[in-house]
Records
---
Amino acid sequence: MSSAQLWRNNSPVQPIDHSVYASQCPECGAIHYPWVLLCKQCGARRYPEDDTELFWRKKGYKSWIKVPLEGPCRLVTWTKLWNLSIGFDQQTLDLAIVEFDNGVKATGQLFVDRPKAGMNLVARPGVIRRYPTHDEWGLHFVSA
Amino acid sequence: MRQVGIVGIGTTSFGNLSAYKLQEILAWSACEAMEDAGVKKGGIDQVIVGNMSAGLFNHQVGVESAMVSILHLEPAMAERVSNGPASGSSAVKLAYTTIASGLADVVLVTGGEQMRKLSGWEATDVVAAMTHPDAEYPYGVTLPALAGMFTRAYMAKYGLTGDQLAHLAVKAHGNAIHNRWAHTQTRADHAALTSSPDAPVINPMVAEPLRFSEVCPVSDGSASLILCALEVADRFKRPPIVIKGIGSATDTHCVHNRANLLELSAVRLAAERALKMAKLGVGDIDIAQLHDAFLILELVLAEEVGFFERGKAIEAVLRGETKPDGRLPINTDGGLKGRGHPVGGTGVSQIYELVKQLRREAEPERQVKKDAKVGMAVNFGGFGNNVVCTVVAKQ
């Protein structure tokens, strides 16, 4: 076995999480997307989630809760964009705003043949932009 | 606080000025304004430049210092103000507070942008960079995309049609062809835009349901004002137009986070604050400049300010009430759609047009017929997330 294979076989490979998350305030339960540093409802602070949290954390601080943005949602409005920014190698791009059952609204890319306001959709992670070095993941909205 | 007036105005032509340097474009309108006011050498205390993003459009920073130097205005104080497409009005607001507080007596305000050195794709991307960096921009969201989604929701609620929006395009172009500085100098024909066999080709979709004729052009250009304390206005050769009120307000960065997608609360609040400061009501406004980067915005802004009931602005447009000879002339210079939209310059050029109209110096074909005394400009930053409203009046 080559050293490269040995390294690969013994590396703790972490599955990459491509999900998109909202954040829920631990004090009052309000959900925010995208993430914020102060709760719009009760004003509670959010501190960094990594190790520096130990530095910032005050006694009794509760971490904010990650709420995955996926599953059933409802189409609010949409557009087919014909005039794209640089970086998109396609003729058109369908974009939409949806609302989830918990009241959170989000913008994402739409993959539906005949969109209609109010129709039921499903949100799931997908590639939203391709760069030479990597793919960027975000929200895809597809038919329910 | 001291009262503040506008004693000089200047503009460049709007359009493709890519043969020039950015500081030249800015200084060109500044020279016009200084000549108009009769400013003597050393007479400018402060320079304020409204510019959204010279760093990205022109790879240039410190444009305010570059402009001071090209005009030999040293040692005047100088700053640049950036507030997206409302940078121009924010620059006027800073100039107002600078004079009102007593920090300066005479301020040169210039708003301008040079966007056409980049390709259309690149310029679209630079403007899109003002959308949310995580929840909007990476998806390919652009300002036209947000306007397209907004327009679809508005049409569904109020029954507005593309055919009706095309009448706004005809009005915008009809005013712009009488404005020698405007970017578009062609008359728009309603049938050609909507029902002719060529319509899908000459008027293609940009962000459905918005078509090409309903979206402003990408422009280079600048406009300038000379502001002064009213107590020193007799130094200048033009009688002052007084800034009676300025208000601004913000809304959520992400459009999807608004409780009601069709309410532009920052527009309403900015207008209320400006009118309260001016001690005027919405019925006192004789003429308005509304930020129609997308034609739907001329309707929605007019409704948010309170000129018309929600969903009813289009009826007033179709009755001709917003034409130069109408009850409430709106965007007499062609608006952003007709005159053009160099993002950082638009707010200043809106006030330039109000002053021109209140002085009764506009071209006869677009000079308002009524004896206008009070004008309002609404300058719209982002997609309504940072709005500035200015009320000016004859002394």
Note: Strands of chain A lie at 21-24, 31-32, 65-68, 71-81, 93-100, 105-111, 120-130, 135-143.
---
Amino acid sequence: MVKSRYFRSPARVILFAIIFFFALIWLVPVLASLVTSIRTYDDLLINGFFAVPRKIVFTNFKEAWILGKINIYLVNSFRITMPALVLMLFFSSLTAYALARFEFKGNRLIYLIYVGGMLLPFQVLLLPVFRLNGALGIYNTHIGLIAFHTAFQLGFCTFVLRNYMLTVPSGILEAARIDGCSEFRIYGQIMLPLTLPAMAALGTLEFTWIFNDYLWAIVLLRTSELFPVNAGLAVLQGQWRMDWSVIVAGALLAAIPTILVFIFLQRYFIEGLTLGSNK
Amino acid sequence: MLTTSRRKTIYRLTPYLFVAFPLLIYLIWVIGPMLYTFYLSLTDWDGISDMNFIRLDNYRRLFRDRIFFTAFFNNIKWIVSFITVPIVCGLVLAMILNRSVPGAKVFKAIFFFPMVLSFVVMGLIWSWMYQPDNGIINSVLRLIGLGVLAQGWLSEPDLVIWSIIFVGIWRQVGYVMLLYLAGLQSVNTDLVDASKVDGANGWQSFGHVIFPQLAPITVVVVVISIIDSLRAFDLVYVMTRGGPFNSSQVLASFMYNEAFWNYRMGYGASISVILFMISLLFIFMYLIRIFRTESRA
């Protein structure tokens, strides 16, 4: 019923045609890579892209997963992303609480530093952090990478959480204060639970960002066994230079965690993006 | 029992306890390095031997380096493309999908999907699609009789940066659409209806009533698009490494090449400083906006 009413005016038919056309173009890369990954590259070379595949194979996935070491790289990715995620949310919520709830000297300045830093093209920090991690003895370790990700994302996380905490009605907190609650208990037992929706959104967004990192991994790590999945994919690209079926299969495998985020946590992801732009 | 004055002192100190440790980390890994880049740019550091202070030599060399200007203008092309195409497409899609279009949810998901993919994954998939002999783009062109248009999308020096930027746009459109969809939620529909009653047509009410209300979000979108353009690295590096003949180099990839392949870290740092200076302009714009809205509240 809704459909027929929508299409009553010809202008709307045109509009619908526009987005339908856009959507098709948007889907091409996804479909193309799916088709490529289940065919052998010889088949693609000889018979062309639009030939009906002789045979559907899963060997490309197997090759990328084991020989291409995507299995190892994926584990590394989680080992880097999860600790960084927990640390950045914890530290930024501490800061955000102070910035949102206390008037103190330096409040504005600290907020300004975090917001300014969050917009920095992070490549500016590349060489100094490379040198710093070397000096601290954490070059080529996951700890070094976790430390940088945690620190850099503090800017965005603090920005988002501070603005969210400002919207929590202060009456609740005042009541607890009068009852003699310590500030750390108010933070942990009252503010944090109230901030959970923002934390979930922010966490989902940050998960994809850290997980998708490539540049910092190749700068702060040297041993490819330690690489997270996107840096590992680039290694795989070098090794299977002439076999696009394996490369594309590897790319699809590497994208599985973020695709799961897209399927199951899409709402939080979108909330995170809009939280970050609402100010 | 604590005396009131001691309690007050503790209360005054509390925010600093909350703020101190995270701020320390931030100063060590973000603010400190940012300042240190300036110092490095005045040295001949190669990553291995001791560094010497060479004053502005790196900058003098930089302004005579043809690759630097290629990279700089490629960033400009990126910025100009990003603040036009995705914003127009994103706004149009948001306006259409904001009404009850059949299948709106599916459409939104399709446009938004590239946002979760990494640049490396996108870069690899698109590199394959751009392949001259049997990539899907040239295959389609030949199939529909437009074989003359088939070309080396990533090997033509004049074309390559646009091929890469297009991939960026493919991702950015969904992002901008989302931000506008969120912005449209807060557009006052009474005003829109009122303008219709007053006889405004669709375009007029968009231009005079809806778009002005979207202006604040547009500022955010523009700043984010510019910052994202300046951060461009992964796509370039995965798809072409800046080639052929450095024609697709952007400032970040040029810097990475100089520092980690040619071991000219001091020189690389001077490229960082230029990148920083450009971004500073927009960071300031954003900060001023934020503090204006803060003081109004």
Note: The mean pLDDT of chain A is 90.
